[in-house]
Amino acid sequence: MVDIRELLDYNERVRHRYLESLKQMPWEEFAKNREASFHSMRNIFIHTLGATDYWLDFLQATNLRSNRKYDDYKTFEEVRTYVMQVEKRTHEYLDSLPKNGLNKEYNVKGDDGKTMKITAEDVLIHVFEEEVHHRGELIALLWQIGIEPPSMGWREL
User: Which secondary structure element, helix H or strand E, spans residue 106, and what is its range?
Assistant: First the structure.
């Protein structure tokens, strides 16, 4: 069985490969509106970080997430800085968990308006899935402009 920490570590390694690959294109291409879910590759990439930031706030009952808008990111270095902030925050959260901390329950309102119980692990699985989902979108956008996406096999990283 795979531990959620392994999945998040995997996402982190792949995220770094993608950022390095994306940095090879001109900023204008990265930020260009491609009529995708969040319009540009920049926005999609930042959205995945923002989702993690949001859910860390939820799990920690804080409000530490970035409130920057997509257009506020003007360089790859600013994006990389945000990557590092979110990853540091994720590691600090995971390191702070007690032995059964992933089993801590939270109440959330579902899309249907009903309240349900979820665990910290459920939230982190969602965070993992959210990034994988949008990485697929990035793959398609990269293929559309003739760029081969970075390798992301589970065991080859």
Answer: strand 105-109
